[in-house]
Amino acid sequence: MPLLSIANGAALMALSVIGYVLKDPANSGRTALIPGAFGVLLVLCGVLAQRESLRKHAMHAASAVALLGTVGGLVPIVMSLVNGTFGARPLALALQIGMLLICGEMLALCINSFVQARRQRAQEAAG
Questions:
Q1: Residue 49 CA to chain centroid, in angstroms?
Q2: Is the separation of the CB atoms in 83 and 99 below 8 Å?
Q3: Over the range 16-36, which residues count as b (16 or more CB within 10 Å of their CB) and which as e?
Q4: How do residues 44-102 score in pLDDT, each as one tens digit?
Q5: pLDDT the model gives residue 26
Q6: DSSP codes joined into one string, 50-118
Q7: Which terminal CB of the chain, N or C, has fewer other CB atoms within 10 Å?
Q8: 122 and 102 Cβ atoms separated by less than 8 Å
Q9: What is the pTM of this model?
């Protein structure tokens, strides 16, 4: 899981760089860097999780970052649907969908890993 956290963090940082490069010259483009901030946090969690003593805490932190990133990608999409502005800013929409997909995938992998670890501990205790 630590390597998946690093890989997903790198993907978010790449998404952020692409969004910043493709931004409208009239905009400052700072919001394009939001996925990169989540990416940095995921990479940090992945690096910390490579140490056995920190793995459990670091991966729980990575799942929290992934949850916040999933919500952070989903809420603007839903709000633009409610406001009737969906698709008005295609680059922003693409970044939000990308962040939603990457963070959602990371969150799903973390949840699956936690469930598998709990099942393994239960089997070891019963066995």
A1: 16
A2: no
A3: bebbbeebeeeeebebbbbbb
A4: 999 999 999 999 999 999 999 999 999 999 999 999 999 999 989 999 999 999 999 99
A5: 73
A6: TSGGGHHHHHHHHHHHHHHHHHHHHHHHHHHHHHT-TTSSHHHHHHHHHHHHHHHHHHHHHHHHHHHHH
A7: C
A8: no
A9: 0.92
Dist. CA 57–CA 60, nearest whole Å: 5
| The length of the chain, given as a count of residues | 127
Give the whole-angstrom CA distance, residue 125 versus residue 123: 5
- Distance between CA atoms of 5 and 118, rounded to whole angstroms? 20
| 13 vs 36: CA distance, rounded Å | 4
**Both structure tokens of 75:** 């809420």
- Cα angle, residue 32 at apex, residues 31 and 34 outer, rounded to 5°: 70
Amino acid identity for residue 118 in this structure: R
**Residue 94 is which amino acid?**
A
**Whole-number Å distance between alpha carbons of 11 and 18:** 10
Q: How far apart are alpha carbons 62 and 38 in whole angstroms?
A: 10
